[in-house]
Specification:
Oligomer: heterodimer
Order of helices and strands of chain B: EEEEEEEEEEE
Mean pLDDT of chain A: 92
Structural class of chain A: mainly beta
Distance between the termini of chain B: 36 Å
Largest sheet of chain A: 6 strands, mixed
Distance between the termini of chain A: 40 Å
Order of helices and strands of chain A: EEEEEEEEEEE
Shape of chain B: globular
Number of helices of chain B: 0
Strand content of chain B: over 45%
Radius of gyration of chain B: 13 Å
Helix content of chain B: under 10%
């Protein structure tokens, strides 16, 4: 099946630092999604990308849809303690039901105040 | 709106026992799905439904049954629990035309001894 590879697996940073993470696939995706999961909660959608090369921001978060359509990037500027959590990339299965999403394994972010 | 609700929040079963995880949403969403989350594995799709009376398998359906008799409810049944089914289970819903924007419930933490 399709796999999404996220890196890094985990990050430990100081408050105020910028963060970058990425997601790659061997298959082309027509949509890239970034979700965040707070500790003990379900994931919440942060940003959705629908077009190759698209750059979208949501507050301090910026995500890009790679031009090859096989990767996506998420940046967080000036991190704060509430940024702690697991960040997942996701995309719809290709060649089948567009309702099915596949998720990466996540990047665990820890922010030291 | 309560959004997506899941019960119970925690459950311990013995091998071979059966149980049903409940999921309900009050947003009149057509699409509902079940995921399991294991450490280092991200979220994996178990079953999904695109509307009342319609269900289909996801990535890891074995050992689980679902039904969708109403738009609001999407229960997940474990017929004979196994230790490999120890996991955190998330239910999600989304509306037609925006099925990538999935709203997740708070999760059920299941332990099978």
């Amino acid at each position: 099946g399709q796999q999404l590879n996220q890196s890094p697996q985990s990050m430990f940073i100081q408050e105020g630092e910028d963060v970058s993470m990425n997601c790659t696939s061997s298959s082309i995706f027509n949509t890239w999604l970034w979700y965040k999961q707070d500790p003990g909660e379900g994931p919440v959608l942060l940003i959705a990308l629908y077009k190759a090369g698209e750059l979208t921001s949501n507050g301090r978060l910026t995500a890009q849809f790679g031009i090859t359509r096989k990767d996506s990037f998420l940046n967080i500027s000036a991190s704060i303690p509430s940024d702690v959590g697991i960040y997942f990339c996701a995309g719809p299965y290709s060649g089948g039901s567009n309702y099915k999403l596949t998720f990466g394994k996540g990047t665990l972010l820890t922010v030291n105040p | 709106n309560a959004g997506v609700t899941q019960t119970p929040k925690f459950q311990v079963l013995k091998t071979g026992q059966s149980m049903t995880l409940q999921c309900a949403q009050d947003m009149n969403h057509e699409y509902m799905s079940w995921y399991r989350q294991d450490p280092g594995m991200g979220l994996r799709l178990i079953h999904y439904s695109v509307g009342a009376g319609i269900t289909d398998q996801g990535e890891v359906p074995n050992g689980y049954n679902v039904s969708r008799s109403t738009t609001e409810d999407f229960p997940l049944r474990l017929l004979s629990a196994a230790p490999s089914q120890t996991s955190v289970y998330f239910c999600a819903s989304s509306r037609q035309g925006a099925h990538h924007t999935q709203y997740f419930g708070p999760g059920t933490r299941l332990t099978v001894l």
